[in-house]
Amino acid sequence: MIRQLVALSCFVLVSVSVFVPFARAHAAPTGSVVHFFRGPDGDYPNPTLTQDSSGNLYATSSFGGNITACTSEDAKYGCGTVVKLNAPDWSITLLAQFSNPKGPLNPNDGVYLDKTGAVYGTSSYGGAINIAGTFFKLTPPKAGHTVWNQTVLQSFRWDSPTGNLVADGSGSLYVLGYSIGNQNVSWDVLKLTPTSSGSWTSAVVASFPSSGYSGALSPDICAPLGLVKDSSGAFYTVTSDGGDYYNGCDITGGTGAVIKIAPPGKNNSEWSLSTLYTFNFNDGAPASGAVVDPVGNIYGTTSYVQYDGCGDSCGGVVSKASARSYPTQQGDSDDTAPALYMLSRPSASDKWTKSIVTPLPLGNSSVTYSSGSLYVGSRGGVGSTVVKLTRSPTDSTWTSQTLYTFAPHDAWDIDGILVGQNGVIYEAATSTAKTSQGSIVEVKP
Question: Is 377 exposed, middle or buried (0-12, 13-18, 19+ CB in 10 A)?
């Protein structure tokens, strides 16, 4: 069992912004561990953390839980959990340990909270057939009780949800789904809508092109990394495969792309897909989903390009260990360094401009946007570092402040980052040097 990955054309200009180091003027932020996962409460926490109005955190894990009761094909790892970490002491409440073969198995990302305190999530498996997933609801216990009630709202027949749930502001939720049906492969955008009776309906509002079970999806659309919505109601996803040097949906056959998924509007009656940017060797490969600022600019991170499955047709194997050289393609002559990039929203044309905000010391970093700043969590190396970046309102320069570096004992592979109440930053780490089950950490400014 593996956790599912979460993921037409315009000419794009490429530029580089000026990056200016920032001297810290205030007392150093502090970092601490909120929770170490131990297995029964979770194993391999998913990237998206959710915080309620009382400051409590909610997290899901793909594995862990009640291993004895788990009936999935990889039962020895567990079927996953949903937990609530209660502020301010961070005591833990176990909301769900999944095990039922006819119910949710292996939740794939974070949860959505409604005004009543109910928790909504999706799972990769446990649907109508074993390769499909579910959309579920966890209802708080009644007074005097401790068990949260679990309800399966949708048991999908073909789709395995992947990535985060995104609300549209009118009650509906959206999520990506990996679909295998009638020997066809596709990535669907699923719309989940509540009814007056309390049930939910599911509809595929957009489906990325496919061409057969074994073959290839659209060259730009492969392995999307979740959804993000802008203020106009349009959605975006970043694909970690496809794009330039595409060689099939095998996670090593391309360099990815940024895709816009637009709802019906004045000039179109259906949802539409368009490619805003296609990554190549010089860009690296996308390492995180997109984030969007209030004016519509898009940000994300890239990692070292790895073409293990491509062979000579796409430049051989490229990785951090490649000593900064590899067989060239289209004039490339240097290894691809990880970076934080920005796609600037066009004002009067369809040309999105790509620029580099800053190089990153390590690949596979996560990014989020909050109150005019970007926050980046880098994984691996000597530890996991949290960096804040702020753009000048008068020019294109960015200032950088390293907020905190966690030792490997506390957080190793940072996979998600959230800026919560009072500017406190929370991160989900899939593993630590202390426990392979992962942790949740915080940085107080």
Answer: buried
Spatial distance between the Cα atoms of 46 and 438, rounded to a whole number of angstroms: 10
Write out the two tokens for 138.
């966890």
| Rounded Cα distance, 400 and 392, in Å | 11
Is residue 193 domain-resident? no
Instruction: Give CA angle at 187 (284, 248), nearest 5°.
Output: 50
In the chain, how many domains are there?
2
Q: Are residues 49 and 87 in the same domain?
A: yes
360 and 423 inside one domain: yes
Asked whether residue 310 carries a pLDDT value surpassing 60, the answer given is no
pLDDT band at 330 (very low <50, low <70, confident <90, very high): very low
Model's pTM, two decimal places?
0.83
Residue 161 lies in a domain: yes
Identify whether residues 299 and 427 lie together within a single domain.
yes
* Domain limits for position 125: 41-179
Distance CA 344, CA 10 (A): 14
CA distances from 70 to 100, 153, 269, 306 (A): 7, 21, 45, 35
